[in-house]
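Complex 501.
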Amino acid sequence: MQTRRNEISRHPLVIRGYVGGRFTDASPTEEIAVIDPATEQRVATLYESSAEEVDRAVIAARTAFDRGPWGRATVAERQKALLAIHDAILAHAEELAFLETINTGIPLSQTRNVHIPRAAYNFRFFAEYINQAGGEVFTQEPGLMSLVTYEPIGVCALIGPWNMPLGLTAMKIAGALAFGNACVVKPSELTPLTVTRLFEIIEGILPEGVMNLVNGRGPVTGTALVSHPGIDMVSFTGGTVTGSAILASLAKGIKGSAMELGGKSANIVFADADFDQALDAALMSSFMNNGQMCLAGSRIFIERKIADRFIEAFSRRVPALKIGDPIQEGTEIGPMINAAQRERMARYAESGLSEGATLLCGGHRFSGLATGYYFEPTAMLAPSNEVAICREEIFGPFAAIQVFDEEDEVIAKANESDFGLVGYVWTQDLQRSMRAASALRTGTVLVNTPIIRDLRTGFGGYKQSGLGREGAKGSQAMFTEMKTTIIARAPRTLPRMGAGA
Ligand code: TXE
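Predicted structure with TXE bound:
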């Protein structure tokens, strides 16, 4: 792997768009360096898609949708294509995991065991789902039959983030294609490697123009895409500020969207919880994916009766996390995505101290490696839920711990947030877990389990965590138009307007 990485740093990859069934020329546009956050070396040169290239991509998708065979393909044909994409990802799994790791800094054990298999699974899931997903028929009214059918929405703009580039973008692509749409995909300009490679390894599987790719920065390529009149919807995963800007742009054209935005998820540990499971899960929820996860459960609430023991155990484990080169086996924490994200960690550590939090461990730039945007995994004991480290999404290896006494108190504090993505609850008391699950204002509640995604359910957030749900029915709602057809099964008794009394 090191040899391949050296080769890439000598001959960086080329990232271009893919429009109407072929890669675009690396013609004179803005050239952007794509960086390996562990080595700080260039791994690719991204030739940014201009507004003109975005226009061509949308037209290609529009033409494929309006006139091509995909929108009318049978379930069996769509399943065959989706399963072929699934197989192609698995056939290239090792390479994709390597590319994901050198582009994101996420440890190889995680990209190999979680991200890439999950990217593939999305296609298999939706291939299976569309065979069962139907509409509705209402016949209660004599003489009438009302049908609800779900039709493809058209051209979907799919904008992906940098923290799980292939996995999260694959979920959008699989859902959009499964329901018969065409799409234009835009990965993050920071992490375009695996999504671009996906387009190479699936060449020939889909009809021309069904799946297009544009690459570039948000304010250039992203803006051109979301403001293009030819798209029908946007599915976006990213930050809340960007999500809000995209929504404002979509409002002009009355276009729909699905938004998977940030989180500040509460992780509530009651004194009766399985201590070891809750501890392992708190570490995982705060530090997996280098802490760069929308569903991180890093706002940790511990019941006072076990607080000293829990905080002591947590503070012992955090400094023992293995920080290192993400391509090395055994590394648990890699670098942040870029220098800006690392500086953000430092600012939050400072703001925590200035607002009265106690530093339990970490809090500084990691200096044990010569290169890379590393930050020490950090934990702070917060004086209240009001401080910035408990309010704002930090998006890095940073846990903010609070102590509580009462169930009502902790539920209220968990809900005191602009976000509402996930609520984690640890207790052996079934009724308490049910009370908490219904009281938490979050799109998902996880009881006695850390991070888990189940595609049969919906994933998304309340409040500023987003709009819409991803997964089975949620994706169907996102990527289809619901159509109602009402048919008279017998002549109806109608008022004879204008025919006299
Ligand atoms: O992401 P952006 P940023 C959170 C996290 C992070 C913060 C900022 O807190 O610190 O967001 O991250 C594209 N029109 N999450 O600024 O900008 C961009 O090119 C259209 C949470 O790096 O949201 C990229 O493809 N597109 C999160 C994508 O949006 C635009 C994942 C995401 O980038 C655009 C990532 C525009 N005007 C960050 N501006 C999660 N929910 O998991 C940017 N983009």
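Residues 159-163, 186, 188-189, 217-219, 222-223, 226, 237-239, 242, 245-246, 260-262, 294, 393, 395 surround TXE (CB under 6 Å).
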